[in-house]
Amino acid sequence: MGQDQTKQQIEKGLHLYQSNQTEKALRVWMRVLEKSADPAGRFRVLGCLITAHAEMGRYKDMLKFAVVQIDTARELEDPDFLTESYLNLARSNEKLCEFQKTISYCKTCLNMQGTTVSVQLNGQVSLSMGNAFLGLSIFQKALECFEKALRYAHNNDDKMLECRVCCSLGNFYTQIKDYEKALFFPCKAAELVNDYGKGWSLKYRAMSQYHMAVAYRKLGRLADAMDCCEESMKIALQHGDRPLQALCLLCFADIHRSRRDVQTAFPRYDSSMSIMTEIGNRLGLIQVLLGVTKCWMIQKELDKALESIEKAQELAEGLGNKLGLLKLHCLCERIYRTKEQQRELRDHVVKFHECVEEMELYCGMCGESIGEKNNQLQALPCSHFFHLKCLQTNGTRGCPNCRRSSVKPGYV
């Protein structure tokens, strides 16, 4: 298969893919991969296969094609192709919750800069690295990466990247419980979709609606949450987007749990868990198990709640997800207080505070914890964040957290 024929077949596959004929598109692209002698064409078709498998939630296949793409990029001896292939390798590992590997591959991308195309990929590299740091609950570095990605998006007038970063920032602020910002950013993403997204994939609309649904639920606006989640789920079903279907099912379950309708919540959690297991989203599984635990607690089935916690703890420890561990220690504390088991209670109180210290989840001004309840937060240029009211009351001549970390141990 020559260069022109390769190009035609890739375009044919793209047309099929955009018409929702995914399996036919995959067959066309696989045929190109088997028969084409054009390395640049092979590189491009591998990119199509990586994107398609990512959207279907076939992350192990995504990783397999990313590894082949690296070899093809080396054959081409082109730094742009090599940077792009390392970015795809980083993204594959991000989807499989291999966050340390993601960060490592992202750093490789950033060290390979030199050409215009490579520099334009910097925003996507920063976004992937930010998502990985967020998966590890390293909040300051996650925020630094997201803000860097946003700057690249603005400088390159890349509205699609800006939309994706806004969704990640919505997730970031949901985790540290500034629900006003958790809603603001996906709403901004939805605006970008409305203003610029006529030719975009519908996944951008679905993604913004899902993150809005999560924020609305946290704010107690359950009817709004349900509307947004239903719209997101409709698009996810139309496009066979398994990862988003799993997230929407989790959100539906959480909404029902917020309404104390445990019997409706349980089957939604089960369906979400099934897809999360199938695609390998271990971070999502932790969220499902947290929801299931809370349902058992509502029903006062404390031993069953502890069984769910044990499964979630194993996953959180394996991933290095510190926020998940903190939430689990908090739930254990409540359970053992009810059971009046003082030794276990004390153990989880100590571990909870260790997690808070490790993640620096406290305001450097008032000393109170961050992420315990809904609070307006403000980040300084160094990406340390504080209660907004503390900054407004006290002002700052620099970051107190940075000042503390720069003091030499001998003078503490």
From TrEMBL:
<keyword id="KW-0597">Phosphoprotein</keyword>
<comment type="similarity">
    <text>Belongs to the RAPsyn family.</text>
</comment>
<dbReference type="InterPro" id="IPR011990">
    <property type="entry name" value="TPR-like_helical_dom_sf"/>
</dbReference>
<dbReference type="GO" id="GO:0007271">
    <property type="term" value="P:synaptic transmission, cholinergic"/>
</dbReference>
<dbReference type="GO" id="GO:1900075">
    <property type="term" value="P:positive regulation of neuromuscular synaptic transmission"/>
</dbReference>
<feature type="repeat" description="TPR">
    <location>
        <begin position="123"/>
        <end position="156"/>
    </location>
</feature>
<dbReference type="GO" id="GO:0043495">
    <property type="term" value="F:protein-membrane adaptor activity"/>
</dbReference>
<dbReference type="Pfam" id="PF10579">
    <property type="entry name" value="Rapsyn_N"/>
</dbReference>
<protein>
    <recommendedName>
        <fullName>43 kDa receptor-associated protein of the synapse</fullName>
    </recommendedName>
</protein>
<comment type="function">
    <text>Postsynaptic protein required for clustering of nicotinic acetylcholine receptors (nAChRs) at the neuromuscular junction. It may link the receptor to the underlying postsynaptic cytoskeleton, possibly by direct association with actin or spectrin.</text>
</comment>
<dbReference type="GO" id="GO:0045211">
    <property type="term" value="C:postsynaptic membrane"/>
</dbReference>
<keyword id="KW-0863">Zinc-finger</keyword>
<keyword id="KW-0677">Repeat</keyword>
<dbReference type="GO" id="GO:0005856">
    <property type="term" value="C:cytoskeleton"/>
</dbReference>
<feature type="domain" description="RING-type">
    <location>
        <begin position="363"/>
        <end position="403"/>
    </location>
</feature>
<dbReference type="InterPro" id="IPR018293">
    <property type="entry name" value="Postsynaptic_CS"/>
</dbReference>
<dbReference type="GO" id="GO:0033130">
    <property type="term" value="F:acetylcholine receptor binding"/>
</dbReference>
<dbReference type="InterPro" id="IPR019568">
    <property type="entry name" value="Rapsyn_myristoylation/link_N"/>
</dbReference>
<dbReference type="InterPro" id="IPR019734">
    <property type="entry name" value="TPR_rpt"/>
</dbReference>
<dbReference type="Pfam" id="PF13181">
    <property type="entry name" value="TPR_8"/>
</dbReference>
<keyword id="KW-0628">Postsynaptic cell membrane</keyword>
<dbReference type="InterPro" id="IPR052480">
    <property type="entry name" value="RAPsyn"/>
</dbReference>
<keyword id="KW-0963">Cytoplasm</keyword>
<keyword id="KW-0449">Lipoprotein</keyword>
<keyword id="KW-0472">Membrane</keyword>
<keyword id="KW-0862">Zinc</keyword>
<dbReference type="InterPro" id="IPR001841">
    <property type="entry name" value="Znf_RING"/>
</dbReference>
<dbReference type="GO" id="GO:0005737">
    <property type="term" value="C:cytoplasm"/>
</dbReference>
<keyword id="KW-0519">Myristate</keyword>
<dbReference type="InterPro" id="IPR013083">
    <property type="entry name" value="Znf_RING/FYVE/PHD"/>
</dbReference>
<keyword id="KW-0206">Cytoskeleton</keyword>
<dbReference type="GO" id="GO:0031594">
    <property type="term" value="C:neuromuscular junction"/>
</dbReference>
<dbReference type="Pfam" id="PF13639">
    <property type="entry name" value="zf-RING_2"/>
</dbReference>
<keyword id="KW-0479">Metal-binding</keyword>
<dbReference type="InterPro" id="IPR001237">
    <property type="entry name" value="Postsynaptic"/>
</dbReference>
<dbReference type="GO" id="GO:0008270">
    <property type="term" value="F:zinc ion binding"/>
</dbReference>
<keyword id="KW-0770">Synapse</keyword>
<keyword id="KW-1003">Cell membrane</keyword>
<keyword id="KW-0802">TPR repeat</keyword>
